[in-house]
Amino acid sequence: MARLAQTAGLTDIQREILSTVRDFVDKEILPVATELEHRDEYPQAIVDGLKELGLFGLMIPEEYGGLGESLLTYALCVEEIARGWMSVSGIINTHFIVAYMLKQHGTQEQKDHFLPRMAAGDIRGAFSMSEPGLGSDVSAITSKAVKDGDEYVLNGQKMWLTNGGTSSLVAVLVRSDEGHPEGTAPHKSMTTFLVEKEPGFGEVRPGLTIPGKIDKMGYKGVDTTELIMDGLRIPADRVLGGETGRGFYQMMDGVEVGRVNVAARGCGVAQRAFELGVSYAQQRHTFGKPIAQHQAIQFKLAEMATKVEAAHAMMVNAARKKDSGERNDLEAGMAKYLASEYCKEVVEDAFRIHGGYGFSKEYEIERLYREAPMLLIGEGTAEIQKMIIGRRLLEEYRFQG
After folding, report:
1. Exposure of 322 in the CB half-sphere (CA atoms within 13 A)
2. pTM of the model
C-alpha cells in the first residue's frame, strides 16, 4: 500500500470498507475511466457496482437501510473514488448531500418516505441552489414559490445541477415570501422543496423541464444540467422540514459537509496525479538516466507528495470535527480551499513531468488536467472560502482591547 495519505485511528470496519472501495476503483474504474470520459458517457456499470456495494446509503442511518457510517468514512471513500475518476465521486456527492439534508432537517414522514429508497440507490438525489447570473450570491435567488391552497407553485430557472438528468429527487432552493413580510432578510425568506421527477431530459413532470447536458471542459460522464420550473406544483408536505423560511440554513448545512467532500475529491485527484508523475519519472530517460534521478524532478516530487499529505490531513480533520458534533465551517473551508488549490498544483506538476506526452489524450494526466479546475469553484470559490475563514478567525480571535 502507498505510504501517502494514510489515516490513523480507523476501526476495522472502516479499513475493510476502504479496502473494498479501493479494490473496486482499481478493477472497475481506473481501466475504463479515461475512455468513458472522452466519450462523455454516463458510467452506468460503475454506478450499478457502487449501488451493489451499498455506497449510496453509506451515511444513511441503519434504521432506514443504510450503513450508518461517519462523515470521515464517507470522505475517505470519496477520496478513493475520485482517485479513480472524479466524475463518479460527483454522482455520489450530490446524492449524499440530499440524503444528509433529509436526515438532519426532514420531517419524520419525509425521512420514512425517501431515505430507505435512497439508501438502496433506487432514488438518486440532486440539489439546486445556483441560477444563471447568480454566482456566489445565494441571496440574489429569483426563483419563487407562491402558496396556492395545499400546494406551492414554483417558477424560475436553476443552473449547474450535477445529476440533473439521472436524479429522481431534487432539493431546490427558491424564494418564498409567504409568511415573511417585506423587508425580511433574503436568507430568511428561502425554502427548500423536495421535487420528485422522472429521470431523463425534456419535460420530466408537468411544469418541470431538464434541458440536455451542459457541455463541459472536464468533469464529463456525469450529467450537469439546467432546471426550468414553469408553473410547477409541489404539495406543501414536500417543504423540507415542513416549515418555510428555513431553506438557506438547510442548504448551507448541506454545503458544509459538501465542502469536506470536495476536499476529499481534491485529495483523490492529487493522489492519482502524484502516482502518475512518480511512475512516469522512473520510466522516462533523459541524458542517460531516469528523469526521477534529476534533482529538479525530485524537488517536484517532494513538493507534490507534501501537498498530498497536507491536504489529506486537513480533510480528515474537518470530517472528524463535523462527526464530533462541533461546528466545522472554519475547518471545512480551510480543507476545501487548500485541497482544491493543491490539487491543481500537483496535477500541473505531474503534467509538466510528462512533458509533451501530458498533452496527449492517450495519457491519463490529460484528463486530470481538465478535471482539477472544477474543484476550484465547486461548493464555493477560493475567494468565498477565504471570506468564511477570515470571518471565523475574527470571531475566534476577537480583539479584547
Report:
1. 30
2. 0.93
Side chain identity at 348, as an amino acid letter? Answer: E
Tell me the C-alpha distance between 262 and 82, whole Å. Answer: 10
The DSSP call for residue 221 is S
Cα–Cα distance for residue pair 4/272, rounded to 1 Å: 11
- Cα 268 to Cα 13, 41, 83, 138, 296, distances in angstroms: 21, 21, 4, 29, 25
Reading phi first (left if > 0) and then psi (alpha if -120 to 50, else beta), residue 82 is in alpha
Task: Give pLDDT tens digits for 27-56.
Answer: 999 999 999 999 999 999 999 999 999 999
CB 341 within 8 A of CB 372: no
* Helices and strands (H and E) in the chain: how many: 11, 10
Q: For residue 342, what are the β-bridge partners?
A: none
Residue type, 396: E
Non-local CB neighbours of 388 within 8 Å, separated by 6+ positions: 329, 330, 333, 380
Sequence-ordered list of residues with C-beta below 8 angstroms from that of 79, at least 6 positions apart, any chain? 5, 264, 265, 267, 268, 271, 312, 315
Q: Which residue has the cell 474537518?
A: 318
Residue reference for cell 485511528 = 9
Contact between 121 and 51 under an 8 Å Cβ cutoff? The reply is yes
Catalytic residues: 379
Which residue would you say has higher pLDDT here, 136 or 362?
362
Which stretches does DSSP call E strand in 224-312? 224-235, 285-286, 289-290
Q: Going by C-beta distance under 8 Å and a sequence separation of 6 or more, which residues neighbour residue 389?
A: 330, 333, 334, 337
DSSP 8-state secondary structure symbol assigned to residue 25:
I
Q: pLDDT by residue (tens digit) across 294-304?
A: 999 999 999 99
| Residue 111 identity | K
Please state the φ and ψ torsions of residue 240, each to the nearest 5 degrees: -60, 120
In the numeric block, which cell numbers belong to residue 231?
A: 408553473
Q: Which DSSP string corresponds to 179-216? A: TS-TT--GGGSEEEEEEE--SSSEEEETTEEE--PPP-
